[in-house]
Amino acid sequence: MTLHIDNEQRRARLARRHGLAGPVPPGKGPEDVAADLVALHATDPATVHLSVAARLHAPLVANVEEALYERRSLLRMLGMRRTMFVVPVGFAGVVQAGATRAVAAEQRKHLLRHLAQTGVGDAAWLADVEESTYEALRRRGSATAAQLAADEPRLRTLMVLPQGSQYVTSRLLFLLAADGRIVRGRPLGSWISTQYAWSCLPDWLPEPMREPDPATARTELARAWLARYGPGTAADLKWWTGWTMTQTRAALRALEAVEAGLDGGETGYVLPGDTDPVEDPGPWVALLPGLDPTVMGFQSRHWYLGQHAPELFDRTGNAGPTVWAGGRIVGGWAQRPTGEVAVELLEEVPAATRRAIASAAGELAGWLGEARVTPRFRAPLERRLTETVTPTG
């Protein structure tokens, strides 16, 4: 192994390929940002909009909603690691076959076990309720979970488990979504709402979703990740996809991925033909939202996160809002109840960088306007900034 890619080069690649540095190309839209990042994290609905805004430097809520709900060129779906993502519709079949199908099979086993433990039903009972629920949704065209439960009362069945009681509703709708049969449509409230109306996927998409075979899909998913996040380690790719290490290594072999030595002694991988250096984009800053794909793209984050994880991640590994400068995380931010976007730096940066960060915070506060965004997963620094009162006078 003779190729070595140091941390500075990794940061330059991330800046350019994730659209974080340099001018925004004319005509670039939400679909392009999603493709740049492979998929947008969507567990927190605000992340989708804030991630797009951070790359396009504009308040594009209406544009994102148009792509999701009018053009339907972006699709909100379950994907890698049982996580909600927004992906370009042309790539959805790869995600479904390469990641979501395995998630669906695993979750079906869990639900069947819980149904048996609680005496609710068996596989035949579950299949009957699934089909009844799907037909109810097909008849309505669009429906909330409550409306579907009114049509199919068995959705209200309560499973009393040692870890807590659960209604069948959310678990069954999860399965139908993971199986690629139903999709979350428009939110019931604003763009930061977590409640959605459901639709049947064949009725939602402009054309059928085409799925490759699972091995081909995993190869294509790995190709997309390496193109945007490489170099990364096999452990990074395994974590990001939720695959086994055997599946991860098979995908890397199929791509004939090139090994690269990384600072610290790890071995990373890049695509063939992607071994030349990337030009340093120069100074840049960005305020990225909680769960932003750039922050959550790797298992090993030391080369851009440093020692800041305890302040910027919650206890289960979910990233809060972060402040970036020149390819590294240097602090965090939060929106206060007043609408102010407050920043706290965790390390010293040059005066010019501080001014650029302050300008970015003002820009973000300006386009958020009356909206108030609280991350779904709250990190210590974000909580502290939200609770801090800025002295006046």
Would you summarize the structure shown here?
The chain has helices spanning 7-17, 30-36, 45-56, 61-70, 92-117, 123-140, 145-151, 168-178, 201-204, 214-229, 234-241, 245-255, 302-305, 309-312, 351-368, 380-387, and strands spanning 4-5, 40-41, 74-78, 84-88, 158-161, 164-167, 182-187, 196-200, 258-262, 267-270, 285-288, 322-325, 328-335, 341-345. With 393 residues, the protein is of the alpha+beta class.
SSE layout and pairing:
Blueprint: E1 4-5, H1 7-17, H2 30-36, E2 40-41, H3 45-56, H4 61-70, E3 74-78, E4 84-88, H5 92-117, H6 123-140, H7 145-151, E5 158-161, E6 164-167, H8 168-178, E7 182-187, E8 196-200, H9 201-204, H10 214-229, H11 234-241, H12 245-255, E9 258-262, E10 267-270, E11 285-288, H13 302-305, H14 309-312, E12 322-325, E13 328-335, E14 341-345, H15 351-368, H16 380-387
Parallel strand pairs: 1-9
Antiparallel strand pairs: 2-4, 3-4, 5-6, 7-8, 9-10, 11-12, 12-13, 13-14
Helix pairs in contact: 5-8, 5-10, 10-12, 11-12
Protein name: Winged helix DNA-binding domain-containing protein
Pfam families: AlkZ-like
Organism: Dactylosporangium salmoneum
Structural description of this entry:
The protein is α+β, with helices and mostly antiparallel strands. The protein folds into 2 domains: 38-211, no CATH class; 285-386, no CATH class. 45% of the residues lie in helices and 16% in strands. It is built from 16 helices and 14 strands. The protein has helices spanning 7-17, 30-36, 45-56, 61-70, 92-117, 123-140, 145-151, 168-178, 201-204, 214-229, 234-241, 245-255, 302-305, 309-312, 351-368, 380-387, and strands at residues 4-5, 40-41, 74-78, 84-88, 158-161, 164-167, 182-187, 196-200, 258-262, 267-270, 285-288, 322-325, 328-335, 341-345. The strands form 5 sheets. It has a 4-stranded antiparallel sheet. It has a 3-stranded mixed sheet with strand order 1-9-10. Strands 2-4-3 form a 3-stranded antiparallel sheet, with helices on both faces. Strand 7 and strand 8 form a beta hairpin. Helix 5 crosses helix 10, helix 10 (214-229) crosses helix 12 (245-255) and helix 11 (234-241) packs across helix 12 (245-255). The radius of gyration is 22 Å and the shape is globular. The N and C termini lie far apart (61 Å). The mean pLDDT is 95.
